[in-house]
Amino acid sequence: MSEIIIGWKEIGLADISDNRDGSDLGIQFFAAQDESTISEYRIFTLLAGQTFLLSHAELNENYTLIIPSGNSQYSVTGDENNLDVNGDLITENTTYKVVILSVADGVNAILNALSNASNAITLTS
Fold this sequence. Notes:
With 125 residues, the chain is mainly beta. The protein is built from one helix and ten strands; from the N terminus they run E-E-E-E-H-E-E-E-E-E-E.
């Protein structure tokens, strides 16, 4: 079994709409180098100044789930019901960043991995 090697060169985060909610978030990231070791990606939205560790990610239930599909890059748009890691709805005039957890498949890899944080953005209309 091996450690997961993440392909995140950079996580892009952008304000892509003016709906004043989680559907304004546009997220792009590169896939892990070997997706055969990953069962899923989890995208977590944090307040810009918030610290979020691997141990937090493994226990937190407020995330967007992405199932690996063999793409080299993923683009994800949030929805109006997206929550930040604190369980609060994503709203305008708040500054956010995202991190991505790759969850090991338990067979080819046993260690989960957490990305560095994306750039921070403030949602505005």
